[in-house]
Design goal:
Helices cover 66% and strands 0% of the residues. It is mostly helical and 291 residues long. The C terminus is likely disordered.
Length: 291
Amino acid sequence: MIEVDVFWSFSFGALFAACSAGSLKNQETFWNTPSFVYTLLFLSLIFAPSGLYLLWDNPGWESMFVLGDKNEIHAILPTIFAFTNVLLGIIGYYVTYKRIRKYRSQQPSNTAIHAPWVHAYTIFCAILGLGYNRFMYPSDYVAWRAGETFPLTAFFTSRILYTLLAMGVVLLPAAYIPCYIWLKYETLVTPGDKGRLFKAVLSYIIQGVVAVTACFSAYTIRNYESDPNLSLSENAWKLFDNGNILDRNSVWSPLLGFWVAETAVMFLVSLPVLVIPSIKARPGKKTLKSQ
């Protein structure tokens, strides 16, 4: 989707740089590093073309139904879309590279290099989750504009989902495999590295969830019109839809959608870290913690 791809592209670049931090910390420039070259190839040969395909195949869904028929799309839009899908990935890589160089003397104990990609993914999940009714809409813009509704389960048998799954067959291994290799052989090479990384990522995820939840809650409460005929407790109960917050029509359902999206996406993104075996300290050898 156009609205989330800009953050997704940034996340890929930042993630690839963070995973290869073990080698990047010693590099004066990043232009000719293997991980940056791979980032360019991934963004230009896989990620950007997949976005263009979805935009052309279903412009309504890809734009979260801001757009409709292809005739509504000016030629400059897909051009800018493809350009930013590569450019923002480069920016994400560069921002993380600068952090790696800044904290190179503290590596591998410093985990601030992972903040950019985690926070970018949180914004990605916020847009996707808060707008889950658009993301999981199984039909085209004609049905959307006509006000047709479908159960959420219809998405799981839709052509859109099958298209995404087919793309995932190429995109996921292309993202997972290099991250696993960089982490295992370049970055997570001393005892405790994996634990520090996992704790850092988890803390950044919690920060993002708290921030999005607070902003959404403040906006919802601010726009709630209290009933002067009800008591404070009754108004509070009404604010939370009389306890029906799991209902799809509840004002709180987008927040639940964000929580689900954040959990699912962060789990998938963290898989390369989870499957890497932890390095155990050798007997009689000092660890970073004991030094």
